[in-house]
Amino acid sequence: MRNRVAIIDQGVQIDHPRLANSLISQITITESTEGIYQIGHNDSDDLTGHGTAIAGIIHGINPLAELLSIKITSSGTGVKTSLIAKAISYCTALDDIEIINLSLGVPSDDPPQDLYLACKKASENGIAVIASAYHLSSTNCYPAFFPFVFGVGTGLVTRKTQYSFIKDSAINILAKGSVQRVAWRNSSFRIASGTSYATAHFSGILSTLIENRGMSYLELEKLIERNSSNDVQNLNHFKGGNKFLVQNQSLNEIERFKKEHFSFQNKSKFVGKVALYPISEKELKTIMEQEHLCSFEIVLYLDYPKSFSGLGSDQKSKNKHRIVRRIPNESEFDSFDTIVLGYILDDDFEANLLMSIAIVAKCIEQSKNFIVWDKTTYDLIQDQIPKINPSYQGKIYFSEVSEELFTKIQGIPGLPKMASPILSVVGTSSKQGKFTTQLRVMEILTNEGYKISHVGTEPQSFLFGSDLEFPIGYKSTVDLIDSNWIIFLEKGLRCIQDINTPDLILTGIQGGVIPRDNQQQSGYILSALNYLIAVNPDYVICCINPTDTKKIINRTLQTIRTFCGAKNLFFAMTPWQTEFIKTKNGKYVVHNRLMSKDDYKKRMDQMEKKLKSPVINIMDKNNNDFILSSIQNAFTAEKEPKEYKQVTKIP
């Protein structure tokens, strides 16, 4: 077949004896130190000999193939991935390229987006993109690992036109890459081996199989599978590993995964009308207090029959829903399709536990959806479903960051670098309204037309539209070792940016970031710091207590600046005055007292003078314009561009 194969390398010696009678043309793409690309047509030199070897192999397998040598050079040190992406895009713009041979790659867990997009577009335009695996099979290598690229490893073959296809693997092809005599620069030859040459063999073979240009990736995959041999052995298997045979995600699977886990609009579609239980818990009480900001319609508030929350049995929410302290009747059950459950198994009262179990059983029986943030509650539901309703059709949403989720997110290639600004709410201690502050900021910015993505560390964040929950407080459901937090969150934020294209990403911590003499909660402090380092905010809003000293506040801000470099926009002071009372056994108990309006205003003025920075009541709507302008002014400066990674040649 007279198919046209593009060879992206560092040149080909077109008059090499092994290329006699070949149909070969050439261009050169050069990148200057300023990032300017130039295309030339008069350079036939091979800088390394590698490109000549590749061309010789392809021509030897299919003498009728038309070869296009695309020589990539840089006036700087090394070839950048941006130059490879430019060469791929050049091929895509042509109307007669069937195959792009890339006997090179970038060993990385985080491939550049420009390379990802260039390969994706080439594949979508009906071009077979063929790339080399890394010679160490345990190393991820791109473009070979992209889901729309055919990655090639070295196999043990009995003839050079033989190859093996591996379905659902990061590396799809095994071809001849064992020791062989290859053409080299200056009309010489060399004995060589490696995945580069296996890639060239397969490109040559495929050029004899393709009959029609413009085949889709799936059509090419079927063609390749039909002509595959089962007799090819993976050479890496003989060397003590079989790392190629790992599950690979298709492009559709990757896009579906990102939407299911990092887009509120997609992952919340199952929710209609909501019931909350038990409303006396802090997390659910917040939902009731901020009901107007909730993303769902709440139709029923339920609470324990025995509760010391201070909520009266006849108390109503802002939307006039009465709080029910019993098992709902049939009409009340019919009013909702999804129930939000708090920490229902933490309560010690028998009457409360019996009511909780009865509500769970009735919801399973009627295939209601569950939103839970407690692992023990989740396990209870899973245990009861086969006993109560084996044909249960509802959905259980559990905000867990598991090792499985961590593994899957690592396999997502081609995500753009972070460009979206990140704002985090921090504080000097716990119980300062940090989550409420996030909701207020989100409300103000959304009302001004900004698109906000929220990452919540509180389990109830999902009810307010968070694109990702990372619960790190009480009964944390983050099942990752600390060192993996940064990897997961950095990738997660980029998924959020890629799927949702927000104007700003908003988040917040729980608790404080420095130890206080009366609070020995080192675990929570380390979690807060670890989280801040991972999300790496550009700016913060710091929540403070009326009793905080200047020293504590400054130490908090200095710690944040040290670990993530973020500056503070303003302070939000809680009206609750927290007092730490020391008991006879040396422990402290916390007492909270709501300040009067006059005392609150007076204390904010004193704090503002002391800190020489704005101190506001975040709930006062008269501060909306100030909050908005503070955030707008902070994020007007552009971020510096990121450097590209260097390409490693695959021998």
TrEMBL record:
<dbReference type="InterPro" id="IPR036852">
    <property type="entry name" value="Peptidase_S8/S53_dom_sf"/>
</dbReference>
<dbReference type="GO" id="GO:0004252">
    <property type="term" value="F:serine-type endopeptidase activity"/>
</dbReference>
<feature type="active site" description="Charge relay system">
    <location>
        <position position="196"/>
    </location>
</feature>
<dbReference type="InterPro" id="IPR000209">
    <property type="entry name" value="Peptidase_S8/S53_dom"/>
</dbReference>
<feature type="domain" description="D-glutamate N-acetyltransferase-like C-terminal">
    <location>
        <begin position="420"/>
        <end position="622"/>
    </location>
</feature>
<dbReference type="InterPro" id="IPR027417">
    <property type="entry name" value="P-loop_NTPase"/>
</dbReference>
<comment type="similarity">
    <text>Belongs to the peptidase S8 family.</text>
</comment>
<feature type="domain" description="Peptidase S8/S53">
    <location>
        <begin position="5"/>
        <end position="235"/>
    </location>
</feature>
<feature type="active site" description="Charge relay system">
    <location>
        <position position="50"/>
    </location>
</feature>
<protein>
    <submittedName>
        <fullName>S8 family serine peptidase</fullName>
    </submittedName>
</protein>
<dbReference type="InterPro" id="IPR035086">
    <property type="entry name" value="DgcN-like_C"/>
</dbReference>
<keyword id="KW-0378">Hydrolase</keyword>
<keyword id="KW-0720">Serine protease</keyword>
<feature type="active site" description="Charge relay system">
    <location>
        <position position="9"/>
    </location>
</feature>
<keyword id="KW-0645">Protease</keyword>
<dbReference type="GO" id="GO:0006508">
    <property type="term" value="P:proteolysis"/>
</dbReference>
<dbReference type="Pfam" id="PF00082">
    <property type="entry name" value="Peptidase_S8"/>
</dbReference>
<dbReference type="InterPro" id="IPR050131">
    <property type="entry name" value="Peptidase_S8_subtilisin-like"/>
</dbReference>
<dbReference type="Pfam" id="PF07755">
    <property type="entry name" value="DUF1611"/>
</dbReference>
